[in-house]
Amino acid sequence: MSDAPTKIPKSSKSILFDIIPKGIDVFSRKEGEIGALLIVPLAFVVIYNVIMRYVFDMPTIWGFELTTFLYGIHYMLGLSYTYVHGGHVKVDVLTTRFSTRTQAIINIITNVGIFLPVFSLLTIWSFKYAFTSTVELEHNSTSWGPPIYPIKIIMALSFLFLFIQGVSELLKDIRSLRA
Question: What DSSP string describes 156-167?
Fold first, then answer.
């Protein structure tokens, strides 16, 4: 038996380092674009609430809360979209001076050492949180009292999408090292 390392077939490399990250990136972009559409109902709710409050002196009991929910969903669905476009905060002051290879190594270390562990835990715990809320059919404890378990499910899915986008970024960084 030979001690030589087995080579991964080129087609497997292509799937792992090209096709999978591209598929994840497309999903993150589409998910973010769909989430961005929430700005339309959000604007309508805000405008309606302002008109009811200041023109007719009849504020709604649900307007502020619905605005908070819509903006929260909008924000959460934008997490992976922002990551795929490189929009999250990074400390680039030092790393931009490094070679592409060194930047990829730093990205891999921070992704494996910080990002993936943190967001795997956030994903796990948010799904537990969403599951408990769903089983209890949790409602908000306000005078309007809307169900909040759907919001918690979307929050958990958003963390999952961000985690998956982190895997895509890791694969792209590994691919850039191999090039």
Answer: HHHHHHHHHHHH
